[in-house]
Amino acid sequence: MPESSETATYSPTQLPEHLEELRREVREFVDAHVRPSVVDNDRATASEFDWKLVRAGHDRGLFRLVIPKEYGGAGYGVLGVAVALEEIAAACAGTALIFGATMLGQAPVLLSGDPQLQSRFLPMFSGDDPVLACNAVTEELAGCDLLIPENVVHATDVVTARRESDHYVLNGRKRFITNAEVADFGCVYANIEGAPGATGLTAFLVPLGTPGVERGPVADKMGYRACLGSELVFRDVRVPAENMVGGENNGMIISTQQMNMARATVAAISTGVARGAFELAKDWCGQRTQGGAPLYRHQFSARKLAEMTSKIDAARMLYLNAASVADNEVPAPAYEPASAKLFADRVAIDVAEEAMSLMGARGYLLDQGLEKFVRDSLGARIYEGTPEVLALAITEALYADEEDF
Question: How far is CA 379 from the centre of its chain?
Answer without folding.
Answer: 11
